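Model it.
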Amino acid sequence: MIWVIIIGMALVTIIPRIIPAFIVDLIHFPEWVNKWLKAIPYAALGALIFPGILSVIPDKPFVGLVAGVAAILLAWFRVHIIFVVLLSILTVVVLTISVGVNNPPTGSSLFLKGLNMNMRMGAHCDYA
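Modeled.
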């Protein structure tokens, strides 16, 4: 019975992904539809990134917004992606220090917070 459920779930997830791949080659869309479809990846990327920008420091969302604007400006001038990322990180660090955030998130504190969540949920952990 479990195999029937697994195969059924696999079909339910794969069919909506495969059908458009075959249909797109058969249908010729108007130019305005093609332009709209090309914009979808940028809209999806923005929807994924923007909430993260606002939650860099939950009490002070302007820190993430300023870093995001800095990244947009550098990208507008076609600066290499590594420098865009580094300047965004530097902007967050400088603003975090200048506005006096008491406990800025660090890699180890985020790790421990995740570890604490796993322990509360009953997950087994060998590295604690």
